[in-house]
Amino acid sequence: MTPAQLRRAREALDTFLIETPSWGFADTGTRFGKFFQDAAAIDLGDKLADAGHVHALMGCCPTVAVHVLWDFVPGEDPKSVAKLARKHGVKIGAINPNLFQDQEYKWGSFGNSDPAVRARALQHCFDSVAIGRAVGSEYVSLWFADGTNYPGQESIRARKAAFEESLGALHRKLAPNQTMLVEYKPFEPAFYATDIADWGMAYLLSKKAGPRAKVLVDTGHHYAATNIEQIVAWLLDEDMLGGFHFNDRRYADDDLTLGSIDPYQIFRIFHEIHLFAHERRRRPKIAYMIDQCHNEKPKIEATIQTVVIAQELFAKAALVDHEALLRAQLKRDVVTAELILKKAFFTDVSPALASWRKANRLAADPLAEHRRSGYERTAAADRRRRRKEMGISRGGSFA
Ligand code: AFD
Ligand code: MN
Ligand code: MN
Known about the structure:
Number of helices: 15
Oligomer: single chain
Radius of gyration: 21 Å
CATH architecture: Alpha-Beta Barrel
CATH class: Alpha Beta
Order of helices and strands: HEEEHEHHEHEEHEEHEHEHEHHHHHH
Largest sheet: 8 strands, parallel
Bound molecules: alpha-D-allopyranose, manganese (II) ion
Number of strands: 12
Low-confidence stretches: none
């Protein structure tokens, strides 16, 4: 790396904050069963401790996304959650309402044809906005499992209208510093018509809801051949890109660790962001968040791995020579234009990561440091003991 490249990469890393998900530290599974890990977090305190440990190692994960039903005890003062987060050296980030697991949402939440169910779903989102205001969070992150499984099951347009109405009502409840992120997903759990199935639907619904509604791009929520960086470029150009949920996928919403399947795609997404910042002379405000579930990998290791690769790819993408790229494009020199991206992608940015970590007084190798610290072993023993005391039986528990 040249000194100029080192500077560019480090400047990019200084701007790159990545939010960890509370649910990524707890037990999860597949649709066929849960697979336990002894070190999995039992409660929010454990999740925030794990997130605080990751932030202490990485230096770029100061906020933690929370799930309202899984992380907040009804009636508990949300400010106590904010205090607990501070105790672990982190802050509460995006508030995620939960509109997909209660029986009442079997036929949908915002898209439900029963106005009473829609009202309850909207109230839950109002409560989530209030929690966000109480804990100082600026994002309410909305994912809807809503949709239908069979042709003819319900009116597609009636459900669209229902979403427009509730999202508009929710937008009117936002505090001036709050933004609502509208996430799309092509299918699962609905398998015929998901109500917010693609970026266009999320864009239109956000636009209609109001100026502080933006689109959330979950990198696992696209069909196999989708050009995600093209979606990102359009949303950036329309000032409608609110944030990301980072994960990787082989076939569907697989929630694999970022970059484990296709790191070049993530690099191309980050290239569009750096190119936008270069051309507009301003960095877009984007919520970079992880959304993953880890069954085989130890949860903290998988989270560290994701943050490490995200930083690496973000730094690589920052090295694209934008002027040379434009010259090649103007000359219709397709090979050179492509090679300019490839050159950045294949540049070893480990010197920049090492010097950034050194400058921030962080371990040179966060994963090795985590393993050396014995954090996982201590957490596993503590949580095994507490589960026993609490009489939590989980079948066979795997380390
Ligand atoms: C599931 C959904 C969606 C959502 C996440 C957290 O597919 O990605 O953002 O749960 O609620 O992964
Ligand atoms: Mn997501
Ligand atoms: Mn998902």
